[in-house]
Amino acid sequence: MIAERANREALIRAFFFGVAFVSIAILGTILVFLFAEGTPIFRTVSVKAFLFGRYWYPTADPPDFGIYPLLIASMAVTALSACISVPLGIMTALYLAEIASERVRETVKPIIELLAALPSVVIGFFGMVVVAPFLQETFNIATGLNLFNASLMLAFMSVPTICSISEDAIRSVPLELKEASLALGATHLETIGRVIIPASLSGISTAVILGMSRAIGETMVVLMVAGGAAMVPLSIFDPVRPMPASIAAEMAEAPFRSEHYHALFAIGMVLFLFTMVFNVIADTVAHKHKQVGAATL
Amino acid sequence: MKMRFLASAACALGLLIASAARAESLNINGSTTVLPVAQKVAEAFMKEYPSISVSISGGGSGNGIKAIIDGTTDIANSSRFIKDKEVALAVQKGAYPVPFAVAYDCIVPVVHPSNTISDLSLDQLKAIYEGKIRNWKEVGGPDRPVVVISRDTSSGTYEVWEEKVMRKSRVYPGALLQASNGAVAQAVSRNANAIGYVGIGYLNEGLKPLTVDGVAAGVETTLDGTFAISRPLFMFTRGWPEGPVLKFIKYVLHPAKGQKYVKDAGFVPLY
């Protein structure tokens, strides 16, 4: 009887281990494939020339494989979209968690999370058809398909992530901290600024970084609204081409296992390293400032 | 009793075999330029041959040719001829791609309808795409900046543009890149400063086609070679076609059938 139970337990454990192992193995295989297909490009160009080369002409003869403009474009778009989405997301989260009434929160939070469910192609289309002409006329610039437009659309996409994770973090601040602060005579706003934000900082940082890593990997939106010029932007109204846009636009037509194909996979590697760094930072921050109980502040 | 059972079983088996033989399938993959042609032709083809089901996807010429080489598709649409490297890979894998020219594509420079420019020479087009001409007034247009819209460097449409217009010089890095004919059309129709180029099938009322060296793009000018920016479009098969693939290729090339749809899809028929 007991033996039978132990057997069953072992079976269940083995089953779960198997499932977990399969999913990790698949991810690992994809990663191996990415690096196996990307590294051959470094036989033709040095890593330095690849990362800091100014020109991306993969199909010219002789070809140029410099991804510096794409790299800068990706960073610029991500940074600018963070400038827009971080204040919006965190303030919305603070409002929902601390100030809004129960009823408002119950209605607004699902709506914000629904925003996350908007397909990126829809957001991209909106940026192309509505925002681009508007920007062009308002600021009297050459084209509405530019860095600013792409950042705005990406900000739309990362606000829900940032907002809902931050809101959970703010709500999990222990009540006694808040009560203690109020009991000492601090106003509600002072309490939010001096107690609640510091206490939930790790959760908020995680939210911001996850939102940014969503923005840097986003493909469809930047393909549609960033403009796609492979040059280093000098103003926020310059057209740019982030890394994912290049991969998506060119992969279909690149001859299989050609230098161009390997170069695109190498861009994928760079992109992967970026998001990995982001996630590692998020993880470290979350562990370092873990809020356990009220005594650790 | 037993006999009857056997007879009915034999009948059922016969039916099974017959239906298996009837349900043939045909896979087509490749160029997004050729996609509208292939789709229209396939719809009509399936009406004529209900037993053959055709499935079509568009992943780009490179992917189509790769699929022919790997044997994962029956027909590859391609907006360019097969490259030497791809031939080498095919021979290595024991595949022999056979090209069929199925239509002509003609690539038209387009501007926003509000632009007063209606004709540019090949050299002016080249200078605009090299980034040497930055304002429309340099070519006799309004005093507005030129926004150059091009295609991603690996598209077949871009290759034609590069070959016929750029002639060995590069499109300057400041050109906006769009990933499809539709995206270029969309971007040009929304921007009064823009110039782009699209396949003749994508012209719509939101775009103003330019004449090149005084020649307007059209069926006659493409076929007699007076319009400079055009190219043949191909379907590749793996080895000489047979069975449903042969039926389909014959259908595409038929002047009253497939070629009619080539025209409907906005391309230039062979005859």
From TrEMBL, chain A:
PROSITE patterns: ABC_TM1. GO terms for biological process: phosphate ion transport. The chain crosses the membrane at residues 12-36, 65-90, 111-135, 220-240, 260-281. Pfam families: BPD_transp_1. It is found in: Cell membrane. Its main location: membrane. One of its GO terms (cellular component) is plasma membrane. Keywords: Cell membrane, Membrane, Phosphate transport, Transmembrane, Transmembrane helix, Transport. It is a multi-pass membrane protein. The keyword Cell membrane applies. Belongs to the binding-protein-dependent transport system permease family. CysTW subfamily. This is Phosphate transport system permease protein. It comes from Desulfoglaeba alkanexedens ALDC. The lineage of its organism: Bacteria, Pseudomonadati, Thermodesulfobacteriota, Syntrophobacteria, Syntrophobacterales. The gene is pstC.
TrEMBL record, chain B:
The keyword ATP-binding does not apply. It comes from the Bacteria. Keywords: Phosphate transport, Signal, Transport. Pfam families: PBP_like_2 (PF12849). GO terms for biological process: phosphate ion transport. Gene3D superfamilies: Periplasmic binding protein-like II. Transmembrane segments: none annotated. The keyword Chaperone does not apply. Residues 1-23 form the signal peptide. Belongs to the PstS family. This is Phosphate-binding protein. It comes from Desulfoglaeba alkanexedens ALDC. The lineage of its organism: Bacteria, Pseudomonadati, Thermodesulfobacteriota, Syntrophobacteria, Syntrophobacterales.
